[in-house]
Amino acid sequence: MKQKLIEGSSKIFYPVDEQQILMTFKDDIHGAQREKSIIGTGGLRKEFSYYFYRLLDQHGIPTHLVDLTDEGIVVKRCQPVKIEVLVRNVARGHWVDNHKIPLFEGGQRFDSPVVEFCLKMKKKLSNGNLVDDPRINPALSVALHRYALDPEIRGNMIKNLSEAEEIENLALNINTIYQGFLHDLGWILEDFKFEVGVLPGTRQFILIDEISPDCSRIRDAEGNSLTKDLFRQRRSDEEIFAGYLKLKEAIHDAHIRSSV
Fold first, then answer.
1. Which of 54, 77, 110, 231 is the most buried (most CB within 10 A)?
2. How close are the terminal C-alpha atoms of the chain, in Å?
3. What CATH number does the domain located at 6-259 have?
4. Helices 138-147 and 161-183, interaxial angle, to 10°?
C-alpha cells in the first residue's frame, strides 16, 4: 500500500494517480462520546456506499465514484467543500438529545425534509471547548468562503447563494431516491448526512466521501434501528454488525435488480 494521503477517524485515503485516490474504510465506530472497533463494519460501509452511489448515478446524481476494489473504493480527486449537509425527515439526534438542544419530541415526523448546513470542523479551543461541526446558514457560508481566518476554510465553501440552492436541491433529490429504496422494504429514512466537492477547474458539485449506516438513521418496519444508533444505544457488536449487514445486502440486491 502506498503512503497515506489523508487519515481521518473512519477512513484512510491513498494516492492512485493524478486523477484518482483510493478511499479505504476502518472498522472504527464513533458516537455518544466513545469509540470502538467492530470487525467487518468498515467493509459493510464500503459496499453500502459503493452500491448506493451506483444507484444515485443511475438517477443522474453526480458522484466521485470510479470503482470498487478489495481494498476500498477508487474515487475521483476533487476539492472538498468544507460543509456537511444534513437532511432530516424525522426529529432525532442534535434537536432531540437532552445534552444538546431538545427542541422536538424524538420521532416527530416533519411535513417536508429539513436541510441543514454545518461547517465541517472539529477543533479543541484553548479554553477546552470543542467546536464540533457547528450549524451555519448559506449566507454565513458565503462569508466564510471569502473571509475565514482558517486557510482550510477560506476559499473552500460556497461562493454565492445560488450554489447553496444547488446543494439543497441535490440534498432533496438524494433524499427522494434514498427514501424510495427504503420504502420498498418498509423501512424509514429518518436522516442522513453527506459531503460535496468540486472537480478541478470547475464549480460542478459532486457527491463525495460516503453515505452509509454510519451517517444515516434508518429503522425497519418494527421500529428497530439498523444504523449507528445501535452503537449509541450500546447494543452488542453482533447486533450492530447485523444491522449494517442487513442494509448492505438490501442495497446490493437493489443494485442487481437495477442492472438486469
1. 231
2. 35
3. 3.30.470.20
4. 130
C-alpha cell at 46: 464500503
Report, in this order, helix, strand and coil percent for the chain, each rounded to 5: 30, 30, 35
Which helix (DSSP H) or strand (DSSP E) does residue 245 occupy? helix 237-259
Percent of the chain residues topping a pLDDT of 70 = 98
pTM over 0.85? The answer is: yes
Q: Which residues contact 242 (CB under 8 A, 6 or more apart)?
A: none
Chain centroid, CA 144 distance in Å: 22
Extract the C-alpha cell encoding 79: 476539492
Cell numbers 446524481: residue: 61
Q: Return mean pLDDT, the chain.
A: 93
Do residues 91 and 107 touch, judged by C-beta distance below 8 A?
yes
Check residue 255 and give its pLDDT. Answer: 86
Distance of CA 7 to the CA centre of its chain: 17
Pairing of strands 122-124, 73-76: unpaired
Query: Which long-range contacts (C-beta less than 8 Å, at least 24 apart) are formed by 105-112?
Result: none
DSSP letters spanning 85-127 = EEEEEE--GGGT-TTS---S-TTPEEEEEEEEEEE--EEE-TT
